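Encode chain A's predicted structure.
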Amino acid sequence: MSEVQIGIIGFGTVGAGTYEVLKNNADLIRARVGARVVVKRIADLDLHSDRGVTIDRDILTTEAIEVIEDPEIQIVVELVGGLTHAKEYILKAMERGKHVVTANKALLAEYGDELYKKAQECGVGLAFEASVGGGIPIIGAMKGGLSANRFQNIMGILNGTSNYILTKMSRDYLPYDQVVKEAVRLGYAEDPPTLDVDGTDAAHKLAILVSLAYGSAVSFKDIYREGITSLTPDDIRFAQEFGYCVKLLALARDRGEMVEARVHPVMIPKDHILANVNWAYNAIYLEGDFVGANLYYGLGAGRRPTGSAVASDIIDLSRRLVLGDKGPLPPLAHFDKGHRKVVVQPIEQLTTAYYFRFSAVDQPGVLSKISGVLGEHQISIASVIQKGREVNGPVPVVMLTHEAREENVQKAISLINDMDIVTDKTVLIRVEKKIADE
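Encoded structure for chain A:
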């Protein structure tokens, strides 16, 4: 085979980045594949905007079906995003015996089970390195280099926008709204950045990682998610006084019959391995039962890093085609159909430490009343900070707890919020232990 022909559906930021790396590094890719990788057709509704790359306009079309139906195209690259049309294109391509590459994390998180099964039924490859972590090769690592391991622990900073916002808040103690406006102005955030800051984007990515780790599709709807919009500079300062920083983390742990999977703000010790992952960078920490700890770090988004990841899938599938491989790797890299079904542990069963910030009236006995409710729910206090007084105004009462059960915490906080000594809703942040303590 002298060449592998591919078609790209969607020529936005990632599509242009993919085309750019395939063109600029064509000789290198040919040497690594053993054949030329040729972009035969590109479909997009907008054929006129400047993508920053020189392209033969004869290969452009507004009709995605022209890419899918072309008998010479062996790999279809779906980069339109969204759920409806993207799913339709992928399914049609598979039915026509074409391998598929996608960067569509939302689609895999929502419909992964259907798509993974369809790929195996059609005997085609479905590759999605770019769906998690941009240019970070985490999917390939889990499918390949780490595949002999049981994954015991996954911790990730999976959204660069939220990480940028939290880094800026931590450095300058600016309010959330002000930092978001600046992030939008500088191009680090969409306007508004809803899916980034409410935990949805990170939950999409965590669903994919958990599915890979345990060989069974997990819906992101089963993953507890909570965003960063309610965090304040005061919470950042208090966390630092306790020796912590605040990150939006995606966490998954093997709990035997269930898997813990959640996305929310977390206080982590300042010497934690993820504490110095700042600005728009992503990082994924993995623990395998034999390999131990691994850390993957890099840019989690952007035209060139994500285009590089898409191209890596194209290269892998092209190699298989050149070698005449008739049995592509299953999408989740598990051949055994009898593998365990993943059940996500309800958040109410979580056991961890907590940070609380109460807005309390300035009068005697307040601390004892709050502590009493916590004690009745088996929540033990580890540390307390009570800051300056305001005349006839609330004062912050800040606590760190020992490990407690989420169900008990939520019941206690609900009761405390209804007490007349509390003037505002209690802020709760979960606290992560040092990795060495795991």
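The two ends are 51 Å apart (CA to CA).
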